[in-house]
Amino acid sequence: MTSADTPEPATLDPRLPSPLQEIGDDRFERHGVRLLLKRDDLIHPELIGNKWRKLVPNIEVAAGRALVTFGGAYSNHLRATAAAGRLLGLSTVGVVRGQELADRPLNPSLARCVADGMRLHFVDRTTYRRKAEPETLDAVLRAAGAEDAYVVPEGGSNAAAVRGCRVLGEELRGLADVVALACGTGGTLAGLAAGLAPEQRALGVAVLKGGFLTAGIRALQERAFDARLGSWSVDDRFHFGGYARTTPALDAFAEDFEDRHGLPVERLYVAKLLYGLATLADADAFPRGTTVAAVVTGRPFPER
Q: What is the per-residue pLDDT across 196-207, written as a single tens digit (0 to 9) for each?
């Protein structure tokens, strides 16, 4: 399929701007904090939340070329890229961390990628860690038969994605004092902060251990905008052991939130965000009268 034949992402009827929903929750209200949910999970049933905002700008730059991207065995980013390929008629290749996985039955996440037409290429963990090095990347692309593909980085965070996420901040201008979201690679926060008004601030809740996000977000903004923009910070205290880790306490919190508000809570990102915000509110980290908007960047993928 040529780029001229490729459907435009707009033909997928995204719900933009995404809805803003006020939530009555006594854990915030008793501290004088108003909680809003920015429902990016409702943008599109398969290209959910920040996946839409980060992938679509890259798809437009790719101009019909095959997409190759990277992720672990349960990567939501791989699933979203595969879904985008199916919906838009694009070839996709997923480079998966862990050569040992190639000889095992596919888990449901990777099986969904294959069902959506993604071709998987497994690499050992040492190679995966070095994937950003030009020589290693070239070797991986050759081995995957994807030399001419457009490369989307792990998590989808690059300059194009950051500029796409700036629109999220623009949609929230003047509507909240603090805009918070869960962060993996930091690309969504980098763009969000650039789009907010000067009096607003963005708060990232890290879902990985390591404390490396601040430097990464600064670098992403430099690449996208040639400057650090907006007021933003990262809180590293609510990762619950790291990426893809949960605890009984986090699960109990998420189940309670679902019961209270009828909202499916994705565990690896959104639950950690909401737990962090409730903890901060309980510690009076937000002055009374503060409006906090929590960006719901995802929800459990449909298993079709």
A: 999 999 999 999
Do strands 20-23 and 34-38 pair parallel, antiparallel, or not at all (unpaired)? Answer: antiparallel
52 occurs within a structural domain: no
Print the domain residue range for 263: 9-45+158-295
Q: What is the dihedral of CA 24, 26, 30, 35, to 10 degrees?
A: -40
Rounded to whole angstroms, the maximal C-alpha distance in the chain is 58
CATH number at residue 218: 3.40.50.1100
How far, in Å, CA of 201 to CA of 159, rounded? Answer: 21
The rounded distance, in Å, linking the Cα atoms of 63 and 90 is 10
List, in sequence order, every residue forming a beta bridge with 206; answer none if it has no partner. 183
Residue 1 domain-assigned (yes or no): no
Q: Which helix (H) or strand (E) holds 180?
A: strand 178-183
Query: What element of type H or E holds 177?
Result: none
Query: Are residues 34 and 164 both part of a single domain?
Result: yes
Total-model pTM: 0.91
